[in-house]
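Reopening this one. Same input as before:
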Amino acid sequence: MNGITERIATWAASCRYEDVPASSLERARLQAASVLGGVFAGAHTEAGRRVVEAVSSWGSGDEASVLPEGTRLPLHGAAYVNAARSVSLDWDDYLFAGHTGHSAVLGALAWGEKVGASGRDVLAAQVVANEAGGRLGAAFLLGPHNGQM
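Same output, byte for byte:
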């Protein structure tokens, strides 16, 4: 392996639900509930309504759902809308060195919906995204990016 990116990608591609400790799975479930609560609350804000209008011009497709209403958009559009709604009230979760929930939970959920993944696979993908995102945030802990991890 040539570098850290390849090592992380190899690990991420091989990680399975059964590889994740039960305590990490429980925390991932709690994180998903928290982030989804932010999405549902954020959907009722002005920003939460307007982001759908902005993203609707990003292409056509029906790969994933915008929550809570269930409108279908391309994967990147649905993930973006849901993530924007999850932060619209500044309800950030916090993992050491980063606010990973918006991307880890909602990216995994949109991906899982597109490919028809099981709930276990989506949860494992969320855990992998948290691990990679947390480590990337830790790499930026000191320096000019501190606070924006």
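So the earlier flakiness isn't reproducible anymore. For the record, Residues 52 and 141 are 33 Å apart (CA to CA).
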